From TrEMBL:
A Pfam family the protein falls into: HK97-gp10_like
Superkingdom of the organism of origin: Bacteria
Organism: Faecalibaculum rodentium
Residues covered by region (Disordered): 87-121
UniProt cross-references to InterPro entries, sorted A to Z: HK97-gp10_tail (IPR010064)
Biased composition (Basic and acidic residues): 100-121
Protein name per its UniProtKB record: HK97 gp10 family phage protein
Length: 121
């Protein structure tokens, strides 16, 4: 009898934590996408439009969000991020746009999750 009540309470806590996690991931991934778009190279303006985010599930069924470059420019985004050799033998320096977004998301995720969880409890 007591064990079923404890089980029920823990189940409710897990459900609340999962909901808070889902909301936090959604909000932080939107911010990360915006930061990546703001920092993306704007020489022609088309690359910025290819930046997207998608929701996937990991092996445990937990939600994950991925910020990525779609389209034809997506396969070359690492060259823009890190730099590359040019045709004439020089080097084109990188223009980091994913790294600042990832750093922001990593720093913001834990504090936002704690806030959401405290609101729900």
């Amino acid at each position: 009898m007591l064990s079923t009540e404890v089980e029920k309470i823990f189940g409710e806590c897990v459900r609340i934590a999962n909901a808070a996690n889902e909301e936090t991931l959604n909000e932080v991934s939107k911010e990360a996408l915006r930061i990546a778009q703001d920092n993306a190279p704007k020489r022609f303006g088309d690359y910025e439009k290819t930046l997207k985010r998608k929701k996937t599930k990991d092996q445990n069924g937990e939600a994950e969000y991925t910020v990525y470059a779609s389209g034809s420019g997506g396969s070359l985004s690492h060259l823009l991020e890190n730099g590359h050799a040019s045709r004439n033998g020089g080097f084109v320096s990188g223009k980091p746009h994913f790294k600042p977004a990832m750093d922001h998301a990593n720093s913001k995720l834990e504090e936002d999750f704690k806030k959401k969880l405290n609101e729900k409890l």
